[in-house]
Amino acid sequence: MHKAPLYICFFSIFFCPSLKAICQFTSQNSHQPKYVLVIHGGAGNITKNNLSDSTAYKEKLTEALEKGADTLKKGGTSLDAVVIVIKILEDSPLFNAGKGAVFNSEGKNELDAAIMDGKTLKAGAVAGVTTIKNPITAARAVMDKTIHVMLIGAGADKFAKEQGLDIVDPSYFFDQKRWDQYLKNKDKSSIGDTNPIMNKYGTVGAVALDIFGNLAAGTSTGGLSNKKYGRVGDSPIIGAGTYANNKTCAVSCTGTGEYFIKNVVAYDISALMEYKGWTVKKASEYVINKKLKTQGGDGGLIALDNKGNFAIPFNTAGMFRCYASSNGETKMMLFK
Ligand code: ASP
Questions:
Q1: How many angstroms is it from 195 CA to the middle of ligand 1?
Q2: What is the phi/psi pair of residue 310, to 5°?
Q3: 321 phi and psi, to 5 degrees?
Q4: SS3 129
Q5: How far is the CA of 283 from the centre of ligand 1 (A)?
Q6: 127 vs 242: CA distance, rounded Å
Q7: Is the distance from the beta carbon of residue 226 to the nearest atom of ligand 1 less than 6 Å?
Q8: pLDDT digits (tens, 9 = 90+) for 124-161
Q9: 221: CA distance to ligand 1 center in Å?
Q10: Which protein residue's CA is at the shortest distance from atom 7 of ligand 1?
């Protein structure tokens, strides 16, 4: 009695192309994660020899990953998850962002951060700030509360104060380990000009896809160790170190910022996907391991597409990186 409708169903699925397409789409979708979060804590000379004890780094990244994933799981937006993750890493002296920011050539901390919403293409950034405890929150405020994309220096610090964000004395960013690093490199030719990969890893970034299908990307950094005063890297520049577009992907970069700016890296990956139809993996591998590498630009990035596929290419010895998704996958990696 029930067999006839079953036959009809089987027959129509097999012979009706549009029904077949619907079935295929549904089955692909059932494997598609509802949310994905990918985080980086910088790329550089990260090897087992250089980092004999990685426990503290792993613990902090795990804390950020869990809090961010929990936000996405509870229906929080990708923008919220990105801010939560980056704030945690900014508050840790382990990473070159917020509290752990490196010193510039004058022995000062100048911080950069950016965030972008893949749904609206709205973006916010701050650069060269010295008193904002969590630059990523200021970037978000620029995006949410102004008609602008980027505020710099004293103006950005003033804006953050007006917004009621946490303001600290510049001495808050003092960290002995970073200061020793600064002193060691001080008398050499400017690291910001010549050999930027030394001792400078630790920029932080996050990309997320939320249950509403929206992508977001954020990056925060103290920049390059011993960089020239006033220097701005790629991290706060939309399209260079940070980019998100629901049509394609969300990207956060880390490495020698000048190369990422000149190659408009984050947007380049989105453009390769949009105009050439490349996958997120093909586009980001090409940009990091071919284009940038041939020019001598070192670093890596995290890139996540609107289906939850992601890539984490880097051309340095290592990169702090981890991810979690609604499929239950979670992983942390440091070395090659
Ligand atoms: N890209 C950052 C900058 O150039 C530094 C880094 O990612 O380590 O400011």
A1: 13
A2: -145, 165
A3: -155, 145
A4: strand
A5: 21
A6: 13
A7: no
A8: 999 999 999 999 999 999 999 999 999 999 999 999 99
A9: 6
A10: 254
What pLDDT was estimated at residue 51?
86
For residue range 15-65, list pLDDT tens digits in order.
444 444 333 333 334 578 899 999 999 999 888 888 888 999 999 999 999
Homologous superfamily (CATH) of 36-335 is (Glycosyl)asparaginase (3.60.20.30)
| C-beta of 321 in contact with ligand 1 (< 6 A) | no
Residue 197 CB less than 6 A away from ligand 1: no
Going from N- to C-terminal start, the domains of the chain cover 1-31, 36-335
Q: What is the pTM of this model?
A: 0.89
Cβ–ligand 1 distance for 200 under 6 Å, the answer yes
CA distances from 170 to 107, 135, 151, 178, 286 (A): 11, 13, 18, 14, 40
End-to-end distance of the chain based on CA atoms, in angstroms? 60
Mutate to test the pocket of ligand 1, among 224, 238, 298 (most ligand atoms within 8 A of CB): 224
Task: Give the C-alpha separation, 118 to 82, whole Å.
Answer: 12
Q: The tokens 């020899």 sit on which residue?
A: 49
Assess whether 203 carries a catalytic annotation. yes
